[in-house]
Structure of 3'-5' exonuclease:
Amino acid sequence: MSKRSLPLWMRDAELSPAAPGPKKRVLSESKINEIAAAVIEDVDAKSKVDNENQDQVDTPRRRLRSNFKIPDEIPKREPTAVQLNIEDVPFIDYRGEIRYYTDMRDMAFACDQLVQWVDKRSPEDHPVVPIAFDLEWPFSFQTGPGRTALMQLCVETNVCYLFQLSCLKKLPAAVLQLLTHPRVQLHGINVKNDFRKLARDFPEANADLLIERCVDLGGWYNRIHGSCGVWSMERLVLQVCRQRVDKNKKVRMSKWHVLPLSDDQKLYAAVDVYSNYFAS
């Protein structure tokens, strides 16, 4: 250990001559060095003990950090419901055109026109053409769901197509050509069940092919937001668009297979399929 210089008061005691009066004890340099070494050793010992105590205090914190494990998978969260006063939320107001068809030839012509419209759209700008899809059928608490009565399509926000299928025994080929067009992608809420229903009532429709190429908007929303909820159209429109769908029970449970449909039925059906287009 290197020798440290003595403090001034210790050097003065050794170098200054003895003053008259009572005899004072003067320490030799060797004795002073011995005392200084002892003091330094004592300080070093205390410092070592303090460091050991500090290590003991810090050890649990290091152990906690080393034991921490990041979870392999973050659990999916349930979708957060929109906190709104439902009475203050406006209804969807559809003011576009409603094209209603009850004749098989008129339906075929309309679908031919739509196929041409799809083909004319640039494949570079529109490789996929989305079309909203929905069905309506009568329901009885005694006999259950009836045969598919109405098909609704929405290709743009300003026009909806209503095809009265209850007057048909078979779907026109042009309708099937539109639904299975390689660039058309049908979408809607719980749309897969609609395709199964359509195929049961009209066997010429291929449910598996339609399901393979469709987009269910509830699943689409869950993938984007990391949620896992089951969505109705009303809830999804409220969540995404902050608007309500007018689900008038009298109209919803009406006789969709009876021709002609009333204006209220036509508007209800148009709003349903427009909501699928609007929320996508």
Observations:
- The CA atoms of residues 50 and 231 lie 63 Å apart.
- The two ends are 81 Å apart (CA to CA).
- The mean pLDDT is 83.
- Residues 29-67 form the longest helix (39 residues).
